[in-house]
Amino acid sequence: MRKSVVRPLLAALVVLPLAAPVLADGLDTRIGEGLFRRMWVAAPTATQAADGLGPLYNARGCAACHPKGGGGRPPDPAVASDQGVGFALKMNDDPVYGRQLQTNAIPGHRAEGRPTIRYRDEPVRFPDGERVTLRRPSYGVADLGYGPLAAETVLSPRLAPRVHGMGLLDAIPDAAIEAEAERQRASGGPVAGRPNRVVVDGVARVGRFGWKAANPTLDRQNAEAFSLDIGMSTPAFRDPWGDCTAAQTACRAGPHGDSKQFEGLEIPSSVIGLIDGFLRDLPPDGGLEPPKDAEGAALFASVGCASCHRPSYTTAADPTRPALSERTIFPHSDLLLHDMGDGLADGVAAFEARGRDWRTTPLWGLNRLAAQDGRLTLLHDGRARSVAEAILWHGGEAESARRSYMELPREARKRLVRYVLGL
Ligand code: HEC
Ligand code: HEC
Predict the structure, then answer these.
(1) Which of 31, 101, 273, 378 has the fewest C-beta atoms lying within 10 Å of its C-beta?
(2) Which SS3 state, helix, strand or coil, does residue 284 take?
(3) Residue 207 lies in a domain
(4) Which helix (H) or strand (E) holds 13?
(5) What is the pLDDT of residue 275?
(6) What separation in Å is there between the alpha carbon of 48 and the centre of ligand 1?
(7) Is residue 167 one of the residues assigned to a domain?
């Protein structure tokens, strides 16, 4: 459908009050924001313009898991009905349940189940006597709707990350990420990150989105969310039943919203394009200037954090997007995969990422959350409640950085945490 027809239709569909600051402003960005916040409904509806949810799904819209573009939190095990926010259980292709446990279903269909978490407290003692208690999670599924999971199925919990600054990360050239991997390898130390290499439509690209860098572009990450999380079809993932497998016949035969006026899809390219555009222009909550705290930066480097949390990258030249073009940004990530040891391992592979590998998480934007240290939900499954806990889970290639941190005098440890919470 032509843009001129789609646009008024979409403008009528969305609410436009939020008005988050964006890198480039315009009506399309505002409509994209409205679509990001939109809660989709089951087919059929009179307009066909907002339907096709599910039949199985995790949440009804992007903002349900990424509220205000922020990250999620895991379910509270003390509250039986709590589903958390933006918490998903991925699986390594279960023959019945597929790639992700869908926790909700439209009327007449059955949800796949609900994740359960148990935490075991593990005290850690610093050489100077200070104590921090880590919580070690174990995961399961209750109320399985379609029989048992396959014996080989491994659960991989994932929390919805913060989604600010994605356009800038997308604009970092593959070659710059590959050069950083080469530099780390040549240095001969314990830190040797590798790019995830993802082949999409026959083209190999460097993966950078998601906790295992399994998606090479923002567009693809967003389209995958419609399929896996919301159960809606897009040009990149054309099945209207999302993650339902051939064994889930009722789901595959269920109502869907593919519609002629929308390219035979539930979410046509115009709609996904507007959401991509909104996220591309959503600026990071920090990280556009070099950190001011030079002493903190020196500590961060000397302990070994900067080996993976590389302070800066420069984006590629792109005359069509001046706000994203040739900018030096400070995400504090090399966007490479690192073996983080057994404590964090999920045992699930994604392209070239293995069971112990995770992408270095960009640390920009933590300043917005600093006041919550002690109640944060950090790491891929939200198990860490503070920056100190997050560091103490670091193992594998990060083992020596963790040890150096533990051996710092108490004041210096505080100083380092303060620095990280200022990024
Ligand atoms: C059910 C909750 C849920 C919904 C709904 C959801 N997401 Fe996500 N999102 C996640 C999780 C979990 C991840 C991490 C995925 C992974 O690592 O495999 C993620 C990752 C992302 C990322 C990558 C962030 C990064 O740091 O690399 C982007 C961008 C994103 N989502 C955008 C969207 C958009 C756009 C929508 C709506 C079309 C959406 N999400 C809907 C849970 C959700
Ligand atoms: C070998 C590479 C490596 C080193 C060295 C390293 N990190 Fe990390 N860091 C990672 C990876 C990979 C993750 C994601 C792990 C996960 O989520 O399971 C991460 C996650 C984090 C997080 C959680 C961020 C979030 O939003 O969830 C913080 C905070 C952090 N690192 C701080 C540090 C600090 C401080 C140091 C130095 C003491 C450090 N890291 C050293 C690779 C590294």
Answers:
(1) 273
(2) coil
(3) no
(4) helix 3-13
(5) 97
(6) 24
(7) no
Any domain includes 171 = no
- Other CB atoms within 10 A of residue 204 CB: 12
pLDDT at res. 298:
98
Q: Which ligand is nearest to the CA of 278?
A: 1
- For ligand 1, residues with CB inside 6 Å are 58-59, 62, 64-66, 86, 88, 90, 158-161, 163, 166, 209-211, 218, 221-222, 225-226, 229-230, 275, 279
The ligand with the least distance to the CA atom of 303 is 2
Residue 244 CB: number of other CB atoms within 10 A? 26
Ligand 2 contact, 49 CB (< 6 A)? no
Query: For residue 292, how far is its CA from the centre of ligand 2 (angstroms)?
Result: 21
* Residues 148 and 238 grouped into a single domain: yes
- Identify whether residues 293 and 328 lie together within a single domain: yes
Question: Which domain-ending residue is among 280, 305, 320?
Answer: 280
Per-residue pLDDT, 51: 85
User: Quick one: pLDDT at residue 88?
Assistant: 97
Please tell me the residue having the least CA distance from ligand 1 atom 37. Answer: 62
Say how many CA atoms lie within 13 Å of 419 toward its Cβ: 24
What's the average pLDDT block by block, 10 residues per block, for the chain (423 residues)? 48 48 76 95 78 95 92 92 94 96 97 97 97 97 97 97 96 98 96 96 94 96 97 96 97 90 92 96 94 97 98 97 96 98 97 97 96 95 98 98 98 98 97
3-state secondary structure 87-153: EEEEEEEECCCEEECCCEECCCCCCCCEEEEEEEEEEEECCCCCEEEEEEEEEEEECCCCCCCCCCC
Number of domains in the chain: 2
Atom of ligand 2 nearest to the CA of 378: 27
pLDDT at position 17 is 43
215 beta partners: 209
Q: Which of 37, 60, 65 to mutate to test the pocket of ligand 1 (most atoms within 8 A of CB)?
A: 65
Cis check: omega of the bond before 362, within 30 degrees of 0: no
Question: 62 C-alpha to center of ligand 1: Å?
Answer: 7
Q: Which ligand is nearest to the CA of 216?
A: 1
Domain hosting residue 320, numbered range: 177-202+283-420
